[in-house]
Amino acid sequence: MIVDKMEQSLRPVETALVNYPPKYITMATGEKLVIRQIRREEVPHILEAVKPLMTVEADFYDIVASRIYSELLGYYRYRVKDEYCLIGTIDGILVGIVNGRMVDDKVGMSYHTMTLKQGLRIGAQLFAAKMEYHLDFLKQEEVWIVAESPNGFKRWMIEYELESRPEIWHELGGVPTYVLTKALWEKHKGAKLGGRRPVSDELLKTADDPILPETYSQIPGYKR
Asked: N or C: which end of the chain has fewer CB within 10 A?
């Protein structure tokens, strides 16, 4: 695509980020959750999975889905600097999405974690993968995090013993900023982080073209 000078001036200068290496996690059911990073051109397809949840009030899916939609669209349209998105699939079906961005060499900004299939702690696994990306692969020193639901506050702020930094204002606003430092990550990742690498070509192929969920019946308040 030819980008004219005006459009080019609207796009942030991007940093060449290290790619997140795919991994898989064997769930309690025996199913294999594959976690991988998506490419920019995949965003429109992923947005189709987010759309149906933008009006579901239960568990604050409406605000989380709406914000993820906006954030990923910003990534797709080159309006957010250094954003990334990881997805989780089981048997090729999209079951979860996480995203964030790199603020600078030392600081990561966590955006959202959304589970499309409940009951397997998929969100917890994806959140841990996101922290792994920032702290182990991008080699950052800390990640800024906020929560938009009581469940999120419990899962992230309390379970990870996050450090309160009310003087920092997160891009998403909301609850004052909490921080996962490198030291806290090293303390908790043994219990929180799962997965094995490498992923076999056969298994990875199932995640290549994610299948959109046919229903979100497990999500409270969803009506097709």
From this structure: N
Hey, what domains does the chain have and what are their CATH numbers?
Answer: 18-206 (3.40.630.30)
Q: Nearest CA to 118 among 126, 128, 110?
A: 126
Q: b or e along 160-169 (b: 16 or more beta carbons within 10 Å of the residue's beta carbon)?
A: bebeebeeee
Contacts of 205 (CB under 8 A, 6+ apart): none
90: amino acid identity, one letter: I
The pTM of this model reads 0.95
Residue 223 tokens read as 């009506």
d(CA 206, CA 219): 24
173: left (phi over 0), alpha (psi -120 to 50) or beta: left
HEC-encoded secondary structure of 135-169: HHHCCCCEEEECCCCHHHHHHHHHCCCCEECCCCC
What the block records as the tokens of 156 is 């992230």
Nearest to 91 by CA among 217, 219, 209, 216: 209
Query: Tokens in use for 142?
Result: 């800390």
pLDDT in tens, 105-135: 999 999 999 999 998 999 999 999 999 999 9
